[in-house]
Amino acid sequence: MLLTVFYMVSTWVQAWKLSSLKARFTAVLNIGLDTTKPSIMFHIKPPDFIKDEKDDKKSDNHDDLLSSHLCSNKSIAKLGDLLWCQGDKRLCTIYPLQKIDVNEWLLYVPGQWNFPLYMNISKTIEQPKILDDTKMHVLIEADIENYCPNAFFELTKLENYGHAVAWTVDKVFAIIIETDIDHLIKLSIALMQNQCYINNGMILKRIESVTITGKPCSYNIGKSIVLCDKRLVGKAQWQEHINKLKIFSSTARHVAQNGTSFEIDTLPGIIIHPGCQLVSLQQPVVLKIDTSMIILMMNLINHKQCCKIDEPSIPPPTTPSSSQKNKNSSNTATPQKPPRKQLSILKDKKFDSFDKTIKPPNVLIYADNTIAKENIKKVLELSLNMDKYTIYELSSNDAKKDIWIDQTNLLIICGNVDGEIANQIIEYIIKGGKILTLCSDALKYILPSFKTAEVREHELVRFSYGKWKNVQLMHHIFCYQASPTKLRSFSQDQEDYKIQKLPKEKTNIPVSENLRDKNGKIHNFHIEVLGTEETWHTPSIVLADLSNSGGKIVFSQIHLEADPSQYECEEIKYQTLKQSNTARLEILSDLLSVHLSMDVNKNLHEEPIFESGFFLGRHEFKLRMLDNLKNKIKDNNILQMKKLQLQFCSGNDKIIKASSNILPIMIHQCPDNFSTIDYFENLKTKELGRLVIYANIMTSSMDVVNGCQLEHGLVVIPRRQTQGQGRGKNIWLSPIGCAMFTIQIHIPINSYIGCHLPILQNLVSVAIISAVKTLPGYENIDLRIKWPNDIYAGNQIKLGGLVVTTLIESKKAICNIGVGVNLSNDYPTSSLNNIIDKHNKKYNKNLSHISYEKFFALIFTELENIIDKVQNNNIDYFNDLYYEYWIHTDADISVVSKNGDIENVKIRGIDDFGFLQVEKNNGTIMTVHPDGNSFDIIKGLIVPSMER
């Protein structure tokens, strides 16, 4: 009865607050015209736990206490009525109505539930209905300098009070929502009741009704980006997310100021575009990005547009009808003109067999939450030899497909999987795959005898593995075991000597296990316990292997991926895990090396040592380039690129220490490990390759030229890269011995190549192979092109590839072409010189290896020759070479659309833009575009690429 009375009273109080505030808000907002209406502003001072003396001094004189610094008319803002005040919170009116220009903001993508904020938005959850007659825009600001891990227990969820329309980050996180008086009142009351945290645990600073002008920038965003999870655990994850938001916002400001689209440097494939529509209170906010304009813009002479040409997603403007059909398909089934004549020279020629099946160097991570995914990626980057492996994420959708099974060297599983994914995992291991599971229920699917599990809270346990004894780490919430005997408890510090231990011989671990694949065939796993929990001797780490296929899987019930910082809010766990961190890394490295046959990093803490680069070429050419850049080169001879500072150093300059973001370049010196004599004696060009920036190590050669017109024909050559770039989000491994370069080429828009820019990648791939085959005696080295631009030995071994990015400047296309070819490095696949050795042995030849410097010179010479011929309308010269070298002549393949439909077709050739033309069974020619598609040449299958 008492509870009923209390509920009635609290309900009445709440209703009274709502009606009282609504009356005051309505009265205030109905005053005069928009020019005389005030803003309603709710301001909150920072909580005590994040304030210090420095903050207090700053707050005393801070302009932003009255109105937001984001408002364009804040300088004339005056306090109106104080509607409510309590402690550090105040609700008041501000005159005049505050204005915000959102040109440099970002449009909030409708339906996007986890970026930039986690919002509980779905079709099953009813969204707030905004009343048209009191509709308004409200600015919401939150602190980004501090993080409160307990904020998730008292969140004010913005999606309950309106619809997000635009956002930005500078010194605060700011978001504008479309709401009405009723929802604004409810939001204000929630804040009055101390719910001062919003989505993602951000500390709220201000809400303020505003009027907005301008058009916020738009961006394409997909599942391939690592976005925020519902809960960010620890300062590391929090800071990483905030940094990502800052990168988006800073790029948007650059886009708005320059009026042109730009790709986000650290997130290849994500392009921010200038605003194209107002955020209106009368119209729904709809994000619409017309990708068909990208190639069209490249052909407009006076329009500046930044874009990638290696992955066009639509046909060029010469076939406009095809852009309107099958937009979600990996192919465009529009009738085309017949493909140009192709040679049949390879039709009956067999590929050389190199007696080597190369496993792609891909390590895939499947995790059921973002934090685990990021943790395991970081620890793998420390543990593995990153010159040999590339790390990608495997989405849930892709995990259910077959595409990854033959393309994976190692699969890491963190967390739980469903039955469909488990079946794919079983197929992968039966085919010889290697798997490491970390606290995953995959154990019960693959080894059914381990289906018994005790449910426990996450807690520290002591376990031993190999030479590592009594290591304290976090155990999985489930403890899977083969024995049906119920466990009493895991060991804990205070219980180590109070509980009787279970003898090892009573753990009943089977030595083998039978498992049926999807075809009903039985496979026998040999089982070995590698590590055990100290008190009850339950299996902490288990190895299962298939002797007939070589498949191996290591099951860890210990969180080897968890970084100690994840538990910094729990002092005892945090300190214990810090002490065990070295052992954690060593155990993971040992599992990878000993049981999964991976090449690991011998020094887990080795950092690359960056050094100065060198400017090579004739002195007058160097002076010409530097003179052209004099307006861009700042103090201390520094040229600021997007990701990198270049310092051109003469004899008297103070040289800045080289680092990942600073590259000093010696103008008058030569490197010890690059033969300029061998290079320039073999270079037979007029312009390409005549100027070279060389360095022993750099992040990526693409960073040196990215976003700036330097010099036509300038080449950047790194001996080694730490962040090599491939197509899309792919990574290019860059070990010593790999021949890597980026060349900048300026193409007139009104030339043949300028009107068919996508074909440039095909020209470069032809030049690479032709550079070798034009050498006397090397004509029969079996080098091929896999469409669109990969370099292969035969049809099995990938030796290289390339990526092309383009910036349109006035009447020129500034094309940066990044190339990597395995020249003398035998991993991760094989190398050109190794192929030459095999050719010599098979055909009793004595061909020499191609030197590092000569290889570059030959490529640039051949590339200039091909470009000149094509620009002079001798396109047949290129076509003949391309069809002679490529793998696919008259191949029968299957094309799989993104919705899963499969169609059998025959490859006929390429069109004027380098896009693949295939013939359907009814004789219709359709075009397949390299818009992230994957071409499995062994299976003869083109499918949409995995989400990365």
Model description:
- With 948 residues, this protein is α+β, with helices and mostly antiparallel strands.
- The chain has four domains: 21-221, no CATH class; 332-352 and 888-944, no CATH class; 362-595, Rossmann fold; 674-885, Bira Bifunctional Protein, Domain 2 (BirA Bifunctional Protein, domain 2, 2-Layer Sandwich).
- The protein has 19 helices and 46 strands.
- Strands 15, 29, 30, 31, 32, 33, 34, 35, 36, 37, 38, 39 and 40 form a 13-stranded mixed sheet that branches. Strands 1, 2, 3, 4, 5, 6, 7, 8, 9, 10 and 11 form an eleven-stranded mixed sheet that branches.
- The longest helix has 28 residues, at 2-29.
- The chain starts with a helix and ends with a strand.
Shape call: globular
Distance between the termini: 58 Å
Query: What is the tally of beta strands?
Result: 46
Whole-angstrom Rg: 31 Å
**Structural class determined from secondary elements:** alpha+beta
CATH architecture of the largest domain: 3-Layer(aba) Sandwich
What name goes with the CATH superfamily of the largest domain?
Class I glutamine amidotransferase (GATase) domain
* CATH fold-level assignment of the largest domain: Rossmann fold
What's the pLDDT, averaged over the residues?
A: 76
Q: Point out poorly predicted stretches.
A: 1-18, 49-63, 223-230, 282-349, 485-507, 726-733, 931-948
- Summed up, the helix count is 19
Q: Mind describing the biggest β-sheet?
A: 13 strands, mixed
- CATH class annotation of the largest domain: Alpha Beta
Assembly level:
single chain
User: How much β-strand is present in the residues?
Assistant: 25-35%
Helix content class = 10-25%
Count of separate structural domains: 4
